[in-house]
């Protein structure tokens, strides 16, 4: 394989963008495992004081999870959620097509997942200034795996980025919050929570290849039920270009690799992908994402009638509206945001 090296003379701003992206990428990929390794080493080699402090830390994690599922209420510290260099690396854009009034809460049904869900992470977690400008008084959150909030060290990182647990209890906690400006939860001036859920999850990630928009949605109705139970509107969003920043080792449905990934996902909720990107100083191989544009288009909210016991027929109706909205969004914007758009199809499975 011929290696395409990055040129020596690259503007400092681009070098910094690559460095920041590398830090985020290595953190996201390595910390779920590295956090437990570091904790184990500290427990094994640490003295009495260090072990005692770790025990106190574990109790804090337990009590905090029992209280609010590890969520940081509000928008957290702006320092951790202002990373324009990460946005500019791709770049990642955010397109508003409708208002999101701050008098209700929202579930953003986000597609496609891609390898890491980068567009959603940038716009709603790691660099939220653009979101706050387009959707004032609406707090952006992104849901991720529940066990991240029970993992020492990793928990602190994802919380600072504004991520929340995707567990039912956590979503109910956030989406049931009051929209009254005078409520004690809204002393920060915000009155609404918008939680992004990558509905296709790990299953959809296994189908992520450049130029292929394959959504896992037909049998995913849990987010619709959650919206109905909490009275939250559903906002379909589509991230054009998300699938193009990484390739991955081929894993056809009946291949040995795919079978292994399915078994691993069944027990952990994570699909062990083998991404193919670029390196720090080359464009041919590595695990950094390629510099390719991602455009997250935020659709119009689909309002629901609140019910503690969602009717199956009503769930199917709203689910169908979400699928139609995504199909319409893809047809309306693909020529504008996808190279060679006529050759691209949307597959919902």
From TrEMBL:
<feature type="transmembrane region" description="Helical">
    <location>
        <begin position="43"/>
        <end position="62"/>
    </location>
</feature>
<dbReference type="Pfam" id="PF03982">
    <property type="entry name" value="DAGAT"/>
</dbReference>
<dbReference type="GO" id="GO:0004144">
    <property type="term" value="F:diacylglycerol O-acyltransferase activity"/>
</dbReference>
<feature type="transmembrane region" description="Helical">
    <location>
        <begin position="16"/>
        <end position="37"/>
    </location>
</feature>
<dbReference type="InterPro" id="IPR007130">
    <property type="entry name" value="DAGAT"/>
</dbReference>
<comment type="similarity">
    <text>Belongs to the diacylglycerol acyltransferase family.</text>
</comment>
<keyword id="KW-0012">Acyltransferase</keyword>
<keyword id="KW-0444">Lipid biosynthesis</keyword>
<dbReference type="GO" id="GO:0019432">
    <property type="term" value="P:triglyceride biosynthetic process"/>
</dbReference>
<protein>
    <recommendedName>
        <fullName>Acyltransferase</fullName>
        <ecNumber>2.3.1.-</ecNumber>
    </recommendedName>
</protein>
<keyword id="KW-0256">Endoplasmic reticulum</keyword>
<keyword id="KW-0808">Transferase</keyword>
<keyword id="KW-0472">Membrane</keyword>
<dbReference type="GO" id="GO:0005789">
    <property type="term" value="C:endoplasmic reticulum membrane"/>
</dbReference>
<keyword id="KW-1133">Transmembrane helix</keyword>
<keyword id="KW-0812">Transmembrane</keyword>
<keyword id="KW-0443">Lipid metabolism</keyword>
């Amino acid at each position: 394989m011929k290696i395409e090296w990055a040129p020596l003379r690259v503007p400092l701003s681009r070098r910094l963008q690559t460095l920041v992206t590398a830090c985020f990428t290595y953190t996201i990929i390595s910390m779920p495992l590295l956090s437990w390794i570091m904790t184990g080493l500290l427990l094994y080699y640490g003295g009495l004081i260090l072990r005692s402090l770790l025990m106190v830390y574990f109790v804090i994690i337990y009590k905090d999870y029992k209280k609010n599922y590890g969520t940081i209420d509000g928008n957290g510290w702006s320092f951790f959620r202002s990373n324009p260099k990460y946005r500019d690396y791709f770049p990642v854009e955010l397109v508003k097509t409708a208002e999101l009034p701050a008098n209700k809460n929202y579930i953003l049904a986000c597609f496609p997942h891609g390898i890491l869900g980068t567009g959603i992470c940038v716009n709603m977690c790691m660099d939220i200034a653009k979101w706050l400008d387009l959707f004032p008084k609406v707090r952006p959150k992104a849901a991720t795996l529940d066990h991240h909030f029970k993992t020492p060290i990793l928990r602190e990182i994802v919380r600072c980025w504004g991520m929340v647990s995707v567990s039912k209890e956590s979503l109910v906690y956030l989406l049931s919050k009051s929209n009254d400006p005078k409520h004690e939860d809204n002393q920060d001036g915000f009155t609404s929570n918008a939680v992004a859920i990558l509905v296709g999850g790990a299953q959809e990630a296994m189908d992520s290849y450049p130029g292929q928009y394959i959504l896992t949605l037909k049998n995913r109705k849990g987010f619709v039920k959650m919206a109905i139970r909490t009275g939250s509107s559903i906002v379909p969003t589509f991230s054009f270009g998300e699938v193009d920043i990484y390739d991955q080792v081929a894993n056809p449905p009946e291949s040995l690799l795919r079978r292994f990934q399915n078994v691993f996902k069944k027990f952990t909720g994570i699909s062990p992908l083998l991404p193919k990107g670029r390196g720090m100083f080359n464009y041919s191989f590595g695990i950094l994402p390629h510099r390719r544009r991602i455009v997250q288009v935020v659709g119009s909210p689909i309002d629901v009638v609140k019910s503690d016991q969602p009717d199956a027929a009503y769930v199917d109706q709203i689910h169908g509206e979400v699928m139609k909205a995504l199909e319409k969004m893809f047809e309306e914007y693909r020529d504008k945001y996808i190279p060679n758009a006529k050759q691209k199809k949307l597959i919902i499975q």
